[in-house]
UniProtKB/TrEMBL annotation:
InterPro entries (alphabetical): Cation_efflux, Cation_efflux_CTD, Cation_efflux_CTD_sf, Cation_efflux_TM, Cation_efflux_TMD_sf, CDF_Transporter
Membrane topology: Multi-pass membrane protein
Domain of life: Bacteria
Cation efflux protein cytoplasmic domain mapped to chain residues: 214-287
Subcellular location(s) of the protein: Membrane
Name this polypeptide is given: Cation diffusion facilitator family transporter
UniProt-listed Gene3D superfamilies: Cation efflux protein transmembrane domain, Cation efflux protein, cytoplasmic domain
Similarity comment: family membership: Belongs to the cation diffusion facilitator (CDF) transporter (TC 2.A.4) family.
TM regions (residue ranges): 12-30, 80-98, 118-135, 156-175, 181-199
Domain (Cation efflux protein transmembrane) ranges: 16-207
Length: 290
């Protein structure tokens, strides 16, 4: 990832932090005013958005450090680990929401519903729509795994808040307040689902899942007439920086200068085709007529 991209990502996270803090305060205050377990749960879920923004700013600062002797591949996996931390926080929040929901079954409270509060919550939904869209857009633009993971986290807020608005309206129309407990459990399920999505994205990096398909690699390689065959193709890394290695078979009479030029041409072609940095390691084998 380019150094200036890290600065842009931190700027994005700063903007999102302000928006999420506002949403968190509004939801928690209205949640306590209405005695809604579901809304309070959603408020604390939004608090995790703010916390993840802070974690993101810190992790991006460390991830932007250049390569050194002890970390020849750079520090970008710090960003990946921060995404994993978001996943853990979501699981803990989901557990907490379910625990409170079960407790409310034996200790029910009267839920006070005010039309003005519903309108305010609707405003927070609109803010979350902006946050999720903006964060996902910038995450893809800057190839930031953290921004993309955090946008999944934020996206769950939208559906949760809509469910809570429907719940408050239903109670206002005379539906049993027990619906609040049902919705709070649904909130927890959304939180767990968001955690699962983030975990799967993070796991693909940590277990070195293929970033570039072998078929796509072969398509690039076979465009070079000098290459007779390619095998043992492996790729890992990130969307913005791929580490690719392979074995290629070339004419045994090619000299070192020709091979060096060929390898550079191949690397440049990969970077051009995939629009990202592709750090290639090529093992050369002589072509032998069978």
């Amino acid at each position: 990832m380019k150094t200036d991209n890290y600065s842009k990502i931190k700027r994005v996270l700063g903007i999102l932090l302000i928006a999420n803090v506002f949403v968190t305060i509004v939801k928690i205050i209205i949640g306590y005013m209405t005695n809604s377990v579901a809304l309070c749960a959603d408020g604390f879920h939004s608090f995790s958005d703010s916390a993840s923004n802070i974690v993101g700013i810190v992790s991006i600062t460390f991830a932007s450090k250049p390569c050194d002797n002890e970390h020849p591949y750079g520090h970008k996996k710090i960003e990946t680990m921060a995404s994993l931390l978001i996943c853990v926080v979501l699981i803990l929040l989901g557990y907490n929401v379910i625990a409170k929901s079960i407790k409310s079954i034996w200790n029910p409270q009267t839920i006070v519903v005010d039309v003005q509060n519903i309108i305010i919550i609707l405003l927070t939904v609109l803010i979350n729509v902006f946050v999720a869209y903006y964060e996902n857009k910038k995450g893809n633009e800057y190839n930031s795994s953290f921004l993309i993971a955090d946008s999944i986290h934020t996206k769950s807020d939208i559906f949760i808040s809509i469910g809570i608005i429907i719940t408050l309206i239903a109670i206002k129309l005379g539906v049993s307040p027990k619906i609040d407990i049902i919705v709070s459990i649904m909130v927890a399920l959304f939180i767990f689902h968001a955690a699962y999505e983030i975990f799967m994205e993070v796991a693909s990096v940590l277990i070195d899942k293929n970033i570039i398909k072998c078929e796509d690699v072969k398509q690039v390689i076979y465009a070079f007439d000098e290459v007779k065959d390619v095998h043992k193709i492996r790729s890992r890394g990130f969307k913005d920086h791929v580490f690719l290695d392979m074995h290629i078979v070339v004419d045994k009479n090619m000299d070192v200068n020709e091979l060096h030029k060929l390898e550079h041409s191949i690397e440049e072609e990969f970077t051009k085709k995939f629009g990202t940095t592709v750090d290639t390691l090529i093992h050369v084998e002589p072509y032998r007529v069978k």
